[in-house]
Every structure is written in structure tokens, then in C-alpha cells.
Amino acid sequence: AAWLARWHSLRAALGAARPAWGGGGSGSPAASPAGTDARVTLGAAIHSVRAVTPSAMREMLDGLPDTVPLHLHLSEQPKENTDCRAAYGRTPTEVLAWLGALAPRLSVVHATHLTDEDVALIGTSGATVVICPTTEADLGDGIGPALRLQRAGARIALGSDQNAVVDPLLEMRGLEAGERLASGRRGRFTPAELLAAASANGYAALGLGRQRLAPGDLCDLVEVAGDSIRTAGSLPEQLPLTATSADVRRVIVGGRVVADSGVLVTSGAAGPTAFPPGALRPETLLREALAVLDDIASLPPGDHP
């Protein structure tokens, strides 16, 4: 209950800290200048089924709006499944289904050791499965059934987890490489599927609606060099299997250049890379919201809004 109260207070504080933008009038991300609160979403996380009791999970699920993104580590290692069966007579995935947690707003991370029934449950729910190839390799977790999950209906996204390697392009390659190692066959994911795992499906997992560069979408772009020692001769669709982060030339977030030729661009830069006048940077927005939350927490009982 205390955790839920803090979550709702933080959500209210974020709302209070958001500027009232002119023009759109609705207050929605599409009506706000790109690069400001359109990029800030507030979700919730349950570490894992083995770390949180079903009653606590049910309390969280009942107390959160249905649209709030929810994040959970799932069946990363076989022992989690063994312990869960011993405690509840169910796999971790079956516990989530029993609680009604399997839904499109849910992101399950790793999902490495699943039964056929688990794959079907996750797939039919439309949840996102966040595969973290470099972490799973570093920890010796194993190779999860990513392609089977996708074919069952789940969205596949990519994460870095422990940041064993900070390179989204290598995570894309690792997703394909894992399937190749497990199946003994090449060409498991299409280039479009690898790109979706690194872009649109990640946006969906965060509760953001961006699908393509359409009016109202966040203008988030990464320019990758096609003429480096690694990428020379590659077709654009081959870059996920040839490029690395060393080939990234420019990064644009919310329509603003944040990195150019390997150098971070500061917010104080003049010209098109600067924030619009009066715009709040996301870190400023969060800092102000947390300050409001701290003020609320310091009030005596009964004085909370």
C-alpha cells in the first residue's frame, strides 16, 4: 500500500511539473514540443515472481491503472522455475496468468527457460518479451525461445540489463545469433524484425505510440555509417549484422541532435540542437517531480493532497 501511494504521488507530481503547452491544447505528447514530456513515461516494476509474493503482486496490479507499463524479470534461470513450482505448483508464467498480469502492457525480461505452455500464454497475451543477448551470454543464462515467442504473438524487444556490452547493434546481432546457435540454421529473423525489436517494440513496451516517422511521432533517429571497415559494401538491411556502436555517426532524440561524430552535444549549444525556449529537459522534469514528491512525503499524516 505504501509503495502504491508513492507511485500515485510521483505520477501526480510529474503531472504538476509538466508545462502547459500552447497550440495542441490536449496536453497529450503529440500536442507537446518534441524532446520534452513526450519522452517521459512512468511505469512500474516487479522484480520477479520469486522475489515478490502473489498477494503483493495482486495488490500492485489492482492499484495501478491498466495502461501503466509493467516490467518483470521472468524465468531467467532454471532455479526460478524449480522454486516457483515448489512454492505455488505453477511456473512463473502460470503464476502471472493466474494473477491476470499477462497483458499487452507487460514486458517480461529474459524469458529464457519456458515450457511450451508458457510460450503460448505469453504469445496470446500480446506481452512484450525483452531479450538481453549480451547479458544472457555473460551470465550463462542460456538462449531463450525468442522466435517461438514471436510466432506465438509476443512482441520481441531488446534490452541491455546489466550493460555487459553497451551496444544496441550488438544486441540486435545477438538476437539473431542466439537463434542460429539454437537451431543450426541461418536467417531466423528478418532485417525488419530485428529493426522492430530495437525500435518500435521497445517504444510499445514503454507505453509510447511511436511506430514510424509519421506526424506526431517522436523524431528519434540514429545515423549509421555504411562505409566503415565493418560496414563497407553492406546493404542498409544488413547493417544490424555488420555495424557496431563505433559506426554511429549521429543520434537525434526528440528532434534534437544529442551526439555527433562520437561527441555528446550539450543542451546549451546554439542553433537547431538546442531545446526550444522554455522547454523542460526530461531530467529537469523528473527532478522537479521528485522534489514535489519529497515535499508531499514530508507533510504530517492527513495533510497529503
Characterization of the model:
By secondary structure, this protein is of the alpha/beta class. The protein has a domain at 42-207: Metal-dependent hydrolases (TIM Barrel). Helices cover 37% and strands 13% of the residues. It has 11 helices and 9 strands. The protein has helices spanning 2-17, 54-63, 78-88, 92-99, 116-125, 133-138, 146-152, 168-183, 191-197, 200-205, 282-297; strands at residues 44-48, 70-74, 106-110, 128-131, 155-158, 221-224, 248-253, 256-260, 263-264. The strands form 2 sheets. Strands 1-2-3-4-5 form a 5-stranded parallel beta sheet. Strands 6-7-8-9 form a 4-stranded antiparallel beta sheet, with no helix packed on it. Helix 1 (2-17) crosses helix 11 (282-297) and helix 5 (116-125) crosses helix 7.
Gist of the model:
With 305 residues, the chain is α/β, with parallel strands linked by helices.
Keyword list:
four-stranded antiparallel beta sheet, alpha/beta, 9 strands, disordered C terminus, globular, five-stranded parallel beta sheet, 11 helices, 305 residues
